[in-house]
Amino acid sequence: MPSPSTFSQSIPVVRDVPDPRSPADGRLQRLLAGLAHKHGVPAAQLVVHDGGRAASATAGEITAEAKFPAGSITKAFTAALAMLLVADGDLDPDDPLGEHLDGLGPQVGRPTVGQVLSHTGGLPAALGADADGGGSARRYLRACRDAGLVQPPGLGFSYSNVGYVLTGYLVEAITGMSWWEAMDTMLLGELGIEAAFVVEPGARRRTAAHVSGHAVHAATGRARPVAQTLTPAEAAAGALALSAGDLAAFGLMCCGGDGPLPADLIDLMRRPVPGAEPFGLADGWGLGLAGYRGADADWTGHDGTADGTSCHLRIDAEHGRVVALTTNGSTGSALWTDLVAALRAEGLPVGDYELPRDLARAARPAADLTGRYTNGDLEYQVDVRADGGAVLVVDGEVYPELALLRDGSFSVREPGTGRRIIGGRFLTDPATGTVSAMQAGGRVARRRRRAS
After folding, report:
1. Is 418 left (phi over 0), alpha (psi -120 to 50) or beta?
2. CB neighbourhood size of 224 (10 A)
3. Is 184 helix (H, G, I), strand (E, B) or coil?
4. Which range, of 1-10, 123-132, 226-235, averages the lowest pLDDT?
5. C-alpha 43: how far from its chain's center?
6. Which of 195, 268, 369, 439 has its CA 20 to 30 A from that of 78?
7. pLDDT score recorded for residue 135
8. pLDDT score at 134
9. E strand or H helix at 420, and its extent?
10. SS3 state at 440
């Protein structure tokens, strides 16, 4: 086992809150405060566990116990909830959804629970107004049936909120409890986590239960509070509000620590599914946790973005290492990137996804990429002009200067900052060799027609 990082060399083993007087906490405090200031993030929390030693820090006017809207990290908790039902014998990862949920129809009922948890079920990324986010499960299930699949189950990875909403309904159908009740009593309570949600049944919102997210203007650093807009129907995919300490408690469970989930099922959550290629998000995906390559070990975890928040969790089960960050600014993901680099420089080789580099070598795309690409109600439009210039339009937002890299991925200019970023990659049909889809943000969008 590698020696502990310099952040934890002088820290005693702890089980709860780290001693804030330790030198390691002081280094973390300065690091986090500096990064929060650099990126205009009003408040942040950080917890680092390294082989049984721990350190923590906060930035801004916030306590270590404050809850942050955790966005899609909720999915990892919902997956763990489903695995508890597997442990009880009430569910099997190979069960088709339609075996437990009526009204999905023969197509949407085909994906298995394991395929849904690993985003290989072929379900759309999200549903539109037809799903009626404040309405009944029956209406949502009908909207799923009508939307169909974006690709056959098991064919490949396509990130789906819908799959985790259906997992939440699956939990309700088996337990007889609401997703909120099951999450609190079966998982959060067992981990010592006080339950907090951004939305509750009946569209109730307890804004005092969590900190406010902020939209941060990248150029000026000015932060504006924003409200959470998640609907009750989408709760199982993104409704949890958590502290960095809460995330760390979940991460330690995934390292084989105290918790209700058996080790073999934790391993199933971590183990990469063959053929699951989450380009743009991670290096692999298991039944609920993403995979990230590290210098000396494979890490797992999840990222989450809510309205004006960005949260991150990384777990190295082999060495008992956990890194948990919560931020309440839209620039929190950039803070995370800098934090990973700083922790690595201090000797903690945090696993993270590395996007393609050397974007300056990108070339102009061919005109035949022009067209409309869709995933459920999500639409991408590629327009290649006669002069070779190209843009990507995502639900009306224009990303200029689309350019191709050698591996089939493409870069664009980020509208808010002007930075050149990876936008996704084009996928070809093996039978014809022609571009049949694109994958952006892990979501596969099928090519529908060529634009005029």
Report:
1. left
2. 12
3. helix
4. 1-10
5. 20
6. 439
7. 61
8. 53
9. strand 420-428
10. strand
Would you say residue 145 has pLDDT above 90?
no
Structure tokens at 201: 């049944």
Q: Which two tokens stand for residue 107?
A: 């197509």
Q: Which residues contact 130 (CB under 8 A, 6 or more apart)?
A: 143, 146
pTM attached to this predicted model: 0.91
Residue 385 burial by CB count (10 A; 0-12/13-18/19+): exposed, middle or buried?
A: exposed
Q: Round to whole Å and give the CA distance between 164 and 304.
A: 14
Q: Which two tokens mark 236?
A: 């199982």
Report DSSP letters for 12-34, one per residue: PB-SSS--TTSHHHHHHHHHHHH
Q: What is the pLDDT of residues 284-309, one digit of tens each?
A: 999 999 999 988 899 999 999 999 99
Show the tokens assigned to 237.
Answer: 């995919």
Is residue 12 scored above 50 in pLDDT? no
Residue 396's pLDDT is what?
Answer: 86
Kindly state the DSSP code that residue 223 receives in the 8-state scheme: E
Taking only the tens place, the pLDDT of each residue in 24-52 is: 688 999 999 999 999 999 999 999 999 87
Burial profile 110-129: b = 16 or more Cβ within 10 angstroms, e = fewer = bbbbbbbbbbbbbbbbbbee
Angle of helix 263-270 relative to helix 73-87, nearest 10 degrees, comes to: 140
CB 351, CB 315: distance < 8 Å? no
DSSP designation for 183: I
- Structure-token pair, residue 391: 């843009």
Q: d(Cα 410, Cα 71) in Å, to the nearest integer?
A: 26
Written as six digits, the tokens of 194 are: 């006080």
pLDDT classification of 92: cutoffs 50, 70, 90 = very high
In which residue are the tokens 């509070």 written? 225
Do 346 and 106 contact (CB within 8 A), yes or no? no
Inter-axis angle of helices 73-87 and 161-175, to 10 degrees?
40
Instruction: Give residue 217's pLDDT.
Output: 87
